[in-house]
Design goal:
The protein has nine helices and five strands; from the N terminus they run βαβααααββαααβα. It is α/β, with parallel strands linked by helices and 199 residues long.
């Protein structure tokens, strides 16, 4: 079973690409979504987050106070590191268990925003970078999250530059609204299945 990472900067369209893989019958693990779920469902993670960030990190109904947490870590590198030190090991453990449930597949996909930044690409067999022009990404995120251009630009500035990711990726999907996403995904799917069946 090949382990394939799908990544891309904010607004690149990696979730849309993963949805296409999913319709092709490929299991997809959404790292960011599972991280959010584990912060609510896993008792050890909840306790660690309360210790690190205080009781306000959860709302009265038990859900995660996302705004409080993102405000706390956005401008504070130490707090961001503390959050990552709690969440990343829990996600890794969850991911390993998920992999074990799909050993009969030729390949599986892990969707993650930080494949290259965290170094987790070294544990993957192949990586796919979804990329798009910055102005297009800004417009998409402004619409999606209902935030200002300045806020999107600040988020992009916090991510690894696109040209560095391109150097590290095995495959690149251009989500520029001109080239067919489905066609690009299907071409990569064909190639991955060929590689996996040879192993």
């Amino acid at each position: 079973m090949l382990r394939v990472g799908v990544t891309g900067g904010i607004g690149s369209g990696k979730t849309m690409v993963c949805a296409i893989f999913s319709t092709l019958g490929i299991p997809v693990y959404n790292t960011d979504l599972r991280a959010k779920q584990l912060m609510i469902e896993k008792d050890t993670v909840r306790k660690q987050l309360i210790t690190a960030f205080g009781e306000l990190v959860y709302l009265e109904d038990g859900s995660l106070n996302r705004k409080y947490l993102s405000d706390a870590v956005f401008h504070d590198k130490n707090k961001l590191n503390a959050l990552n030190a709690i969440v990343h090991p829990a996600v890794y453990e969850d991911l390993v268990h998920w992999y074990s449930q799909h050993l009969d597949k030729l390949y599986v996909v892990q969707e993650s925003a930080l494949v290259f930044e965290t170094g987790s690409y070294k544990m993957l067999d192949k990586t796919i970078l979804v990329t798009a022009a910055e102005d297009l990404r800004i417009t998409r995120v402004m619409k999606r999250d209902n935030i200002s251009k300045e806020e999107v630009v600040a988020r992009i500035a916090n991510q690894m530059p696109e040209h560095e990711k391109i150097k590290l990726a095995d495959y690149i999907i251009y989500n520029n609204e001109q080239d067919s996403l489905i066609e690009q995904v299907m071409n990569i799917d064909t190639e991955l299945k060929m590689i996996a069946s040879r192993n």
